[in-house]
User: What shape does this take?
Amino acid sequence: MLTFTDSHCHLDFDELSQSLDEVLTTCEAQQIKRIIVPSIGPQNWQQVLSLPAQMISSVDLYPCLGIHPWFLDGLADDAIEQLDKLIAEHKASLIALGEMGIDGTIAKDSKEPTQHLNQQIAIFEQQLELAKQHQLPVIVHHRRSHPEVVRSLKAAKLSRGGIIHAFSGSYQQAKQYLDLGFLLGIGGTITYPRATKTINTVKKLPIESLVLETDAPAMPLAGFQGLANHPKHVVDVFDALANLRSEDKCMLSEQIEANINRLFNL
Ligand SMILES: [Zn+2]
Assistant: This one.
């Protein structure tokens, strides 16, 4: 039996949280055994942390704590200290920090692009420092920011690496992350035929470097544009991946699950 982990799903967002029991029952039926739930900032830390206790399904939920680069406006000056405290409090159950990272598009569209980018980099690097101190892996957001993300990760010298969420890019870009001990989050992007660069990269990557994700309710798969994404589609991402790879499905699913176990010590 094939089993799956959605390594990136925002279960606390309205589109999913309003019918959470139903969402998880559907996942259970599709053999989705685990869902990793990143947070976006102080505004949803408690909500994400409280998810596992509310759930009645057998799907294991893993909350993560972090500050997403889209949500820096109005961030409290002591947000990193608050984060540090909360990590210490939840050390026993926390498997990773995130989501965090650098978004070049958001910076470019802001009123002060350079200033915004520098602020993103500063907040990202402070979180990488926390990951190092607490010896946790990180879940990293990137968009038009490979050089900046790679630079920060190289400087951080993390002990446990992490996941490059929604990886898209060339084989050379992927390789830089693999060399830094990171896994690549493969999501709905590969269901779009126009994503040729990413598709060609994913065909060639070592199987030990791949994990699956949906980013639900964001990033709908091809054919579902305009609809809220759902973690059940991690199975469709897997099918799309299996079509690009030479390994048989059983072997592929087992290896991907093993990659998750290895990264998060599960
Ligand atoms: Zn996300």
Notes: The longest helix spans residues 113-134. The CA atoms of residues 54 and 127 lie 28 Å apart.
